[in-house]
Amino acid sequence: MTQEQWGQIRQDLRQVLGQNNFTAWIEPLQFQSLHDGIATFNVPTNFMGNYLTQNYADTILSSMNSAGVAVRRIQFVVASRQQAKAQAAAGTAPAAAANKVETPVSADRPGDMDLPGAPLDARFSFDRFVVGKPNELAHAAARRVAEGGPVSFNPLFLYGGVGLGKTHLMHAIAWELHLKSPHLNVVYLSAEQFMYRFVQALRDRKMMDFKELFRSVDVLMVDDVQFIAGKDSTQEEFFHTFNALVDQNKQIIISADRAPGEIKDLEDRIKSRLQCGLVVDLHPTDYELRLGILQSKVDAYKLQYPELQIAPGVLEFLAHRISTNVRVLEGALTRLFAFASLVGREITLELTQDCLADVLRASDRKITVEEIQRKVAEHFNIRLSDMIGPKRVRSFARPRQVAMYLCKQMTTRSLPEIGRRFGGRDHTTVMHGVRKIEELKIKDHQMAEDLELLRRALEA
Ligand SMILES: Nc1ncnc2c1ncn2[C@@H]1O[C@H](COP(=O)(O)OP(=O)(O)OP(=O)(O)O)[C@@H](O)[C@H]1O
């Protein structure tokens, strides 16, 4: 790195961090070396190295990259006193033998960052997001938004069931944008926090500040937007914020547990606004994705517990048996590793079954025909007796076929058994119903959506 480049980076940092922070944290830094994409800086104390890592390393990294210096990692080292003296006298950096700061100090992975919204989780980056069929569209859309540049769809609306990676993707976008363009004002917060801030502003008579704050962001991300459904004044304010930002061509990213049109008690004008951009969903994980996620988590754990051994077949077993959300999968693995490291044993199938007995039992829960009938009747707003009864009008027949289809998919009951539980119907009637829904699922978007919602509700 040339002196000129370093000068430019410092100037950039002064602007981004403000004069006070710059004087306190950046001025004392001394550039030491750049090898293999790792930039090393000398700092006077451990405390300073740690502070810089946690707070400014990613900003420094992106300033360096913007100045054309190819860096993928930054480390801070504490120069010994003598070296520091010699260096000060000679005006150069010591060549080697500097003490490493206690905590590994690198900036290839971002640390926690305080945005005007909620803090971002350092683990939720793109490189830790495993892509598979169920989430590839959502991932591609998130990547596109994270590239920055002209807004191509607004908003990006991500939806899906619990623990499928919506928050992870939103944080990943924020990290990426922050690294690429630290000047951008990227705000991530949950819809609940949005409401809380709004209510607080009303109470403190600071609505002008509130409006100004939210209208001055470059990228706004609101997680779990279904939360504001039924909360009239928050919805109203959200609507105005949304419009103001879209008018200024600022990117908005929203997540929810279901599609915009499916969120009850959300004003129609908001629903239609939310549908204006790109709406993509995260599908429930499939076996391959679960296995991929487990493998990537194991790789990360191995760095932490290098001595741990995992027997062949354990991950496959878990990917098969735990079919709920990724959070549950992660929790199971964490528990397994903690346990195995405590007892100092290899993770075998037996140890896995032992240690995760309750989790495995919970995901073993059998879904019954009755449960399906009840949920479907509720969903289509008909009486359970009409679902099972003899009437053949369309408004009962279609939900009945949906329920039959779900029974076939989600239980181990045979067609004659299912028929019996639907008021003693013949197995050919069940077969016809199942086929009809299979057809509609492909042709009719609404039907596909209904089936997906019902399946999720039943699995929850
Ligand atoms: N594809 C993936 N690769 C790696 N980790 C994932 C993936 N999907 C989800 N996770 C992990 O699963 C956990 C839950 O994900 P996240 O919090 O993003 O879910 P969510 O969809 O926002 O759920 P909720 O509706 O509960 O808010 C996180 O720890 C996240 O890192």
From TrEMBL:
Residues where ATP binds: G163, G165, K166, T167
GO annotation terms (biological process): DNA replication initiation; regulation of DNA replication
Localization, UniProt: Cytoplasm
CDD domains, A to Z: AAA, Bac_DnaA_C
Segments of this protein annotated with the region Domain I, interacts with DnaA modulators: 1-80
InterPro entries with a match to the protein in the record: AAA+_ATPase, Chromosome_initiator_DnaA, Chromosome_initiator_DnaA-like, Chromosome_initiator_DnaA_CS, DnaA_C, DnaA_dom, DnaA_N_dom, DnaA_N_sf
Segments for region (Disordered): 89-112
Entry protein name: Chromosomal replication initiator protein DnaA
Listed Pfam families: Bac_DnaA (PF00308), Bac_DnaA_C (PF08299), DnaA_N (PF11638)
Subunit description: Oligomerizes as a right-handed, spiral filament on DNA at oriC.
Gene Ontology CC, one term: plasma membrane
Cross-referenced Gene3D superfamilies: 1.10.1750.10, 1.10.8.60, 3.30.300.180, P-loop containing nucleotide triphosphate hydrolases
